[in-house]
Design a protein that fits this description.
heterodimer, A: 96 residues, mainly alpha, two-stranded antiparallel ribbon, 2 strands, globular, B: 829 residues, alpha+beta, Nucleotidyltransferase, domain 5, Immunoglobulin-like, six-stranded mixed beta sheet, 21 helices
């Protein structure tokens, strides 16, 4: 017997940490643009700019941290992992 | 602008080196004897005086009881190495600290300051306890800040520094004690580690061992005494140490000559004079062939795992002393069609790469006292990459709050950035309401680019700035170091909650929710709930390695079973782990993580385990061949060879060789992991059936009762599970099935009938609850609520209350005690 709400919550957290959502870039973006956007977000977070602290998803805004941004860049550098994230990103992007 | 100095240290099994990088060039610092390599050897005399490096190494043959070398494989263990005359016994990390201290002193003598921070390299296959020990060694040596880097990444950075062609590379790093082979890729100036493999117990030391055995046998034939048979006595150990030093010298000479003498004085320790043997390069090649075969086998496995052949590798970088052996170079050369990188010094490349990495992460070794006092004027915080492959990176700045008012200045209206060489000036950028600006600067290729920020008020007058200069080096952009093995938390049902998957870039931080499986009594230090932290790829917790334990004890008030806790794991850039658990119910935070040392199993325990592992291997091999599952056959392909290696390590472990004991333990772990993998593959038909059952059971539940988010996730998990089934990927399928079960059960809980089912189940099993009285009380309350309406629709909107009670009841039922014991007695789910 388990407390399923934890697992669902943890699962939702993991899925909504999709690198394309975290970096706010389209799944078609090329790696140079992804790296540049990631580096920009890291610099903005380090400088404490408010606009960088949250990102939008279909199920509401989430907190953006330097760790998430770094992880997102690294995930998208790997072509196989990027393909998986492109697949998981479907249906999670903000509607507007 | 004050120039930062970056320091990198290669802490090797046999030799160590230190290098500095000033933003333009990297150089290896020579020691007091003028050598760039410092032997990793420490001697302590009877008065406690310490000698490190070449002088200590000279004493290895004559005074082995007071001189130690080659302890790197023991890092992270609690094995203390004795120094008889001083009556002292030091941990491996304390010996490493002595070597680091000596290297830092060399920089002090050359640069005029003692470095306060450095990057230290470690083998890629080092586990968390070994990395912790390396960091502790740096701190003991006086470093305020220590960042670790994996040796193959350091080598690749040094070899690929400043514009190299794109492609796949292989770094073949054979050190004194360890082998690391890494596959890397550079594309558009960005360096990425694809994968690595290796052997923590294969190195030049093993080749020296084969040479020593050969020479000892030759001495026996000459009637000069049996050195190996007499290794238990102090006299025998001294003679063996002299022979080892002579053999190592001969091996080095054979890198240049085709034959070399091995001169041993008084091998029997009876004043019997000097004996001279001779060995040819061909004979050495025969002796070392098994080790070279093993190292090349690791290369083949790595390439195959990444769907590559030797022809796909554009360049091979050789690192480490043993790669200077002509026999080894010829074999690697043959395998890769001569594509060995030229102009690379295999002995110092790691230290150089570590220094370059220190530059790329902005780790300044200069003591604070050297920093100039801040100037008057507007202070601006500027964020930018230290090293990048991007020719037009973003720079973000922010005027620091309060500084402008303090100096009587208004915030400037706009800023302009200029490159020092006058080759580029950016357009003026308006400050935001936060006092910030974002500007894309332009870099000159392959060099250090200095910039200056100038600020202007509304009238166009320049605003005086306290700071505003920065530099960006254009070069190979290095990705954050990837985590070598997954890290997670063991749950009481023996499942692993993965926090960081293998390959996660560091630093990383993650918080996930859990619930306690039993009550914790207030104020009691004896009543501790365990949160085990494990490292490994298996979804079954017990198949991973326990690396740390967080205990929740001394809670402010009684914590019932099912209390929510939020566990945070944080890894810094070096892979150092910090853990905390927050208990929202009490507002308390627990952080006292006990880190687990590399276990030191007794030889008797290892012998017993070897015998049981042999039996298990025979059983798995029999079933594998009976069922004919190709993937399982592949999974156990190495098992027989590993067990034979374990058999060979046993006699030395019995004779008290700590290194052999560790090797035996590691081999047994590797064999059992391979057997676990094979067993998981043999269970594939059951897992496939389970996947079908999950789909039939949970799909209607989620469709009817799931939230939109749950439905979306379930659909994707179902599709991913289907793909994993088609690929026969058991590990991947288990992950998606776990997710489907969680989503299905969460949805099912919203079905009013589920309440009735759950209450009936709990009533039938109430005696198994951890708190029977509490469970009975909750059941009574649930039934009372049900009694006020229909069984599935309690009156007065009581469904929500009923659901809350059922959740409380569920939390009172334990996981299986067997599973909990397997999962390191985890107290959470």
């Amino acid at each position: 017997m388990t407390t399923d709400s934890d697992e669902v919550e943890n699962l939702l957290r993991a899925r909504l940490e999709n690198p394309f959502l975290v970096l706010a870039v389209a799944p078609a973006a090329d790696i140079a643009d992804i790296e540049r956007q990631g580096q920009r977000l890291l610099a903005e977070l380090a400088a404490g700019l408010d606009g960088a602290r949250r990102y939008a998803t279909r199920f509401g805004a989430r907190a953006r941290t330097p760790e998430l941004v770094r992880a997102a860049i690294a995930e998208l550098r790997d072509p196989a992992r990027r393909l998986a994230h492109e697949w998981w990103a479907r249906g999670l992007e903000p509607t507007s | 602008m004050r120039s930062a100095i970056h320091v990198g240290i290669d802490l090797g099994t046999s030799n160590s080196a230190i290098a500095v990088f000033d933003g333009e060039a990297v150089s290896v610092v020579a020691n007091a004897s003028g050598e760039t390599l410092t032997p990793s050897v420490v001697r302590i005399d009877g008065r406690g005086g310490r000698t490190v490096g070449r002088r200590a190494q000279r004493a290895l043959g004559g005074d082995p009881a007071n001189t130690r070398g080659e302890w790197k494989r023991l890092m992270g263990t609690a094995d203390r190495l004795p120094f008889e005359a001083a009556g002292a016994a030091l941990l491996p990390e304390e010996l490493s600290a002595a070597v680091i201290g000596s290297l830092l002193a060399d920089v002090r003598d050359a640069a005029g300051f003692m470095p306060r921070a450095a990057v230290i390299s470690t083998p890629a296959l080092f586990e968390l306890p070994q990395n912790h020990a390396t960091t502790r060694a740096g701190r003991l040596a006086g470093l305020e800040e220590v960042v670790l880097i994996q040796e193959p990444i350091a080598s690749a950075i040094a070899a690929g520094w400043r514009a190299d062609p794109d492609g796949t590379w292989l770094v073949f790093d054979l050190g004194g004690g360890t082998l690391d082979v890494s596959l890397l890729e550079t594309a558009d100036g960005r360096l990425r580690v694809l994968d690595h493999a290796g052997d923590n117990f294969l190195g030049g030391k093993d080749m020296d061992g084969a040479l020593v055995d050969w020479a000892a046998a030759a001495l026996v034939r000459r009637g000069a005494g049996d050195l190996l048979g007499d290794r238990a006595s102090a006299r025998g150990r001294r003679a063996l140490a002299r022979l080892r030093a002579a053999c190592e010298q001969a091996k080095i000479e054979l890198s240049r000559a085709v034959r070399a003498p091995i001169v041993v004085s008084d091998p029997a320790g009876d004043g019997g004079g000097e004996h001279e043997l001779e060995i040819t390069r061909d004979e050495l090649d025969v002796l070392t062939a098994p080790f070279i075969d093993r190292s090349l086998a690791a290369v083949r496995v790595l390439l195959a795992k990444n769907q590559r052949t030797p022809d796909d590798v554009a360049r091979v970088v050789l690192v480490g002393g043993p790669t200077l052996m002509p026999g080894l170079r010829a074999r690697v050369d043959e395998m890769f069609g001569g594509r060995i990188a030229a102009g690379v010094d295999p002995m110092t490349i790691v230290a150089r790469g570590a220094a370059l990495y220190a530059g790329s992460v902005g780790l300044d070794a200069t003591p604070a006292a050297r920093a100039p006092a801040p100037a008057a004027g507007l202070a601006v915080r500027i964020e930018h990459p230290s090293v990048t492959a991007d020719l037009e990176p973003f720079v973000v700045g922010r005027c620091l709050p309060g500084t402008s008012q303090a100096s009587g200045q208004a915030l400037p209206d706009r800023v302009r950035i200029e490159r020092d060489d006058g080759g580029w000036t950016g357009a003026d950028a308006k400050l935001s309401s936060e006092g910030s600006f974002v500007v894309q600067v332009r870099l000159d290729r392959s060099r250090r680019n200095g910039f200056r920020v100038r600020a202007f008020d509304r009238g166009g007058a320049e605003v005086k700035m306290a700071s505003g200069t920065f530099a960006i080096v254009h070069g190979v952009s290095i990705g954050d170091p990837p985590l070598a093995r997954a890290i997670g938390v063991a749950r009481a049902d023996d499942s692993t909650q993965v926090y960081f998957a293998k390959g996660t870039p560091l630093p990383a931080r993650r918080t996930l929710a859990h619930h306690t499986i039993r009550p914790i009594a207030a104020g009691s230090d004896d009543d501790a709930l365990a949160v085990p932290i494990v490292q490994g790829e298996s979804v079954r917790a017990h198949r991973n390695r326990l690396i740390g334990m967080l205990h929740l004890r001394g809670v402010a008030r009684d914590l019932p079973a099912g209390s929510r806790i939020e566990v945070t794991l944080e890894l810094d850039r070096s892979g150092q782990l910090a853990t905390r658990a927050d208990v929202p119910g009490t507002g308390q935070t627990f952080q006292d993580v006990a880190f687990v040392l590399v276990p030191t199993a007794s030889v008797e325990t290892s012998e017993r385990e070897l015998s049981s592992t042999n039996r298990r291997a025979a059983d798995v091999q029999r079933r594998t061949f009976l069922l004919g599952v190709p993937a399982a056959v592949q999974a156990i392909a190495e098992v027989s060879a590993l067990l034979a290696e374990a058999d060979r390590a046993l006699p030395a472990a019995r004779a008290g060789d700590l290194d052999a004991g560790q090797k035996l333990r590691r081999l047994l772990m590797d064999v059992n992991t391979a057997l676990d993998d094979a067993e998981a593959l043999l269970e594939w038909p059951d897992l496939d059936d389970e996947a079908r059952r999950c789909k039939l059971t949970y799909t209607p539940m989620v469709a009817q009762w799931g939230t939109p988010a749950e439905q979306q996730l379930y659909e994707q998990e179902l599709e991913a599970a289907g793909r994993a089934r088609r690929r026969n990927d058991a590990a991947e399928l288990e992950l998606h099935l776990d997710a489907m079960r969680a989503l299905g059960r969460a949805a099912y809980c919203r079905d009013p009938h589920s309440m009735t089912d759950a209450i009936e189940w709990a009533a039938a099993h109430v005696t198994e609850a951890m708190d029977v009285a509490a469970a009975t009380r909750l059941l009574d309350r649930a039934r009372a609520l049900q009694g006020h309406g229909s069984p599935v629709e309690p009156a007065g909107g009581g469904l929500q209350a009923l659901r809350a009670i059922v959740t409380e009841i569920w939390d009172l039922f334990p996981s299986s005690p067997e599973l909990q014991a397997k999962s390191f007695d985890s107290g959470i789910r």
